[in-house]
Amino acid sequence: MVKDLIINIAIIISYIFIIGQLLQVVQLNGDYKDVCAKRKNQLLAGTLFGILGIILMEFSIQVNELVILDLRHISTIIAAVFFGIPGALLSAFIIGVSRIALFGGFNDVSVSAAIGMFAIGAVCSLLLRVPLQRGLQSLVMNIASIVIIYIDLYINVVWLSNNREVLASIYSLHWSISLVGGAVSYYVTRFILTSNQAYLSLEQSNSRLYSLVNNLPSGTLVESPDREVELYNHTFRDIYSLNEGDITVGMSSSELELRNESKYQDSSFASRIETIVHERELVLNEELLLTDGRTVERDYIPIYSSSNKFLGHMWNFRDVTDRKDMEKQLLESEQNYKSLAQLDGLTSIPNRRYFDETLNKELNRMKRYNKPLSLLLMDIDQFKRYNDTYGHLEGDHCLKEVALSIKGALKGSLDFVARYGGEEFGVILPCTDENGAYSKGEEIRAGIERLAIPHKLSSVNPHVTVSIGYTTVNPNEEIEAETMLEQADEALYLSKENGRNLVTGFSKDKVGFQNQRPE
Question: How large a percentage of the chain has pLDDT more than 90?
Fold first, then answer.
């Protein structure tokens, strides 16, 4: 009997493992987005557990010379607990019909056993509606199933055959056999299906990771601790012009480096990689010059687990050629900016001539890079009254303070300020849209007001203030520098007309100028 019990448990464990492989899409929490997929999964499980019940009837447990038992009801219990009512009812139906068709034929004992199996399926389905923890639910179903089996045995063994001795021998063993088999089956099923779910979750996480990496704008290469390629994206291949077979998962990174070595201007590239890998320290924004004239920035990130176990190497590459070109142009502009011929002698900022050159240059460059360009023109409010009140020396000092304040507000590396006229200033803001232009204008206006330079005859404010007008050229908008100046000047005129100390934006439809009086 013990041997038969062990065989039955081995059959259940093996079969449940097979079912787990067939049903890897199962979701134990019941959170199905597709109802049809859920029902299909439940019916498939019911069919498979019905077949398990048939197998368990074939490998029955020999209690004594006259009595045999089987654990067919456990199939329906597991189907109910993990796959719901459809799984329970279908497995019970298959087992019940098979009891008549395959084991005994159409007679009183077979029909009674089949009806008992149908009853077990129905009771398990009803017990699913009782809010119990899943393990306790399985135990209650097992006990209820044993009771139904006893009722069937009583009818067939005692009532019809009047054989109480046989029934007593069954009672003495069936409880322990069913409870042990049921407990083992429940925990094995839970372990296998939970493991499947964890595997699927990991697989989904990996899929999301691969999708994310493949859509990154930078090139990514991940290596194992012994420097074999584990992951790379299309951007990495594009940066280094690699074909499909030039890089594969599992290949040695040393082989990949040999293929890329000739693409670098610096011949010490290979030895530098060995140093980085050996030190395992974070490296960011390291520049590499390619032989085709491009510039690539490289990051190295050592990968560690939460327990500080080293897991591998991650490299990140960015083609920064365009940015370097812009920085080079900026450097050239700064060198020209320092030329005395292009500086205003009083304020030490660029003069009108350099301003005009820069505006034309930036307008063409922004068109080429498909970026917006904004222009600000500003005028010190009632500056003639200031000169008449405080004298020209103080007026010169005021101009210097205002110029310094404007320059300090321009934090962008490409932003440009110049003295446009006597008390007028111009600001060029590359890569800046209307909102950015207004914000920068308001920052400049507020900064000058905070200087608190006295201006007692001003009708606007007891301190020096500026009025500002701005305009923006958006990408693909055809416009000349002269037109931009006219638009900004028109907006400046409106700032003065509306009370001064304002920032006003040019509106191309002449309606709804952006302006705001400071509180």
Answer: 39
Residue owning tokens 């994206």: 233
Helix (H, G, I), strand (E, B) or coil at 316: strand
CB neighbour burial string for 164-190, b if at least 16 within 10 angstroms, e if fewer: eebbeebeebbeebbeebbebbbebbb
pLDDT, tens only, 394-425: 999 999 999 999 999 998 778 999 999 999 99
pLDDT tens for 29-51 read 444 445 566 778 788 888 888 88
User: Residue 146 and residue 174: Cα distance in Å, rounded?
Assistant: 8
Does the model's pTM come out above 0.90? no
C-alpha neighbours within 13 Å on the C-beta side of residue 429: 28
Amino acid (one-letter) located at 399: L
By annotation, the residues acting in catalysis are 423
Cβ atoms 289, 272 nearer than 8 A? no
- List C-alpha distances in Å: 361 to 318, 355, 402, 412: 27, 10, 26, 17
Contact 504, 494 (CB under 8 A): yes
Q: How far is CA 135 from each of CA 128, 187, 206, rounded to the nearest angstrom?
A: 12, 8, 32
Q: How many whole angstroms separate alpha carbon 502 and alpha carbon 489?
A: 13
Q: Are 5 and 59 in contact (CB under 8 A)?
A: no
* φ, ψ for residue 64, nearest 5 deg: -155, -170
CA distances from 274 to 230, 253, 271, 368 (A): 18, 11, 5, 40
Residues 6+ apart with CB under 8 A from 288: 264, 266, 269, 295, 296, 297, 298
Which residue pairs from 44-48 have beta carbons closer than 8 angstroms and sit at least 24 positions apart in sequence? 45/19, 45/79, 45/82, 45/83, 45/87, 45/91, 46/79, 46/83, 46/86, 46/87, 46/88, 46/89, 46/90, 46/91, 46/94, 47/90, 47/91, 47/94, 48/19, 48/22, 48/23
Residue 299: beta bridge partners?
A: 316
- Residue 355 zone, left/alpha/beta (φ > 0; ψ -120 to 50; rest): alpha
DSSP one-letter code for 257 = H
pLDDT in tens, 439-494: 999 999 999 999 999 999 999 999 999 999 999 998 888 889 999 999 999 999 99
Tell me the β-bridge partners of 374: 429, 472
Q: In the prediction, which pLDDT does 512 show? A: 43
pLDDT at 24 over 70: no
Q: At what angle do helices 35-58 and 72-102 cross, to 10 degrees?
A: 70
